[in-house]
Amino acid sequence: DARVTQTPRHKVTEMGQEVTMRCQPILGHNTVFWYRQTMMQGLELLAYFRNRAPLDDSGMPKDRFSAEMPDATLATLKIQPSEPRDSAVYFCASGLGTGPHTEAFFGQGTRLTVV
Amino acid sequence: QKEVEQDPGPLSVPEGAIVSLNCTYSNSAFQYFMWYRQYSRKGPELLMYTYSSGNKEDGRFTAQVDKSSKYISLFIRDSQPSDSATYLCAMSASGTYKYIFGTGTRLKVLA
Lengths: 115, 111
Prior knowledge:
Chain A has strands spanning 5-7, 10-13, 19-24, 31-38, 42-50, 53-56, 65-71, 74-79, 88-95, 105-106, 110-114. Chain A is mainly β. Chain A is globular. In chain A, 39% of the residues are buried. Chain B is globular, with a radius of gyration of 13 Å. With 111 residues, chain B is mostly beta strands. The mean pLDDT of chain B is 93. In chain B, the strands form 2 sheets. In chain B, strands 2, 4, 5, 9, 10 and 11 form a 6-stranded mixed beta sheet that branches. Chain B has a 5-stranded antiparallel beta sheet with strand order 1-3-8-7-6, with no helix packed on it. Chain B has strands at residues 4-6, 11-14, 19-25, 30-38, 45-51, 54-58, 61-66, 71-76, 85-93, 100-101, 105-110. Helices cover 0% and strands 58% of the residues of chain B. In chain B, a hairpin with a 4-residue loop joins strand 7 and strand 8 (71-76). The chains are: A mainly beta (115), B mainly beta (111). At the A-B interface, strand 5, strand 9 and strand 10 of A face strand 4, strand 5, strand 9 and strand 10 of B.
């Protein structure tokens, strides 16, 4: 059963601490997305990668957020330093981009609480 | 004003009812339209995907796109309690992987 795997599922941290979220995309998928979901804003695209290269990270606060794909089986999203306003559910999604459009398959999310 | 607008609900219907969920959008460049279903504390899962205008049917689900009105709909026939979830519309322009999501409509189907 192919699925996107995210760890950890839940994270509670103190303001100022570094947070690292990990994602294992579906094997063979070449596109990875990071989204943030809040009640007020809904799902917001933070960054996406194609063949491990970042294509768009304009949705990410550059001063504290960073996203990388060290290899095809791992994507990471880091927040340093974390702030209470970063509390949200962070979703990773992957897709197979073979044309002008790719469908995104979502993981279960990481629920982040910054106190 | 957001690019994609969606009524947050909640929308409560009796089992067996026909449900209509809708989104409006402002960007005429959107070509790809999707509906996702999200159960509580789960990730969104793709339900329907359409390109440009027209209708698409899959079982009890029908997606409609009216580009002239910038309006998309998802119809659920013979709704079941298991359909209770939040339904998110999403759309993107051709040549981009950037989906813009609505904030979701919470649906409750009462047994």
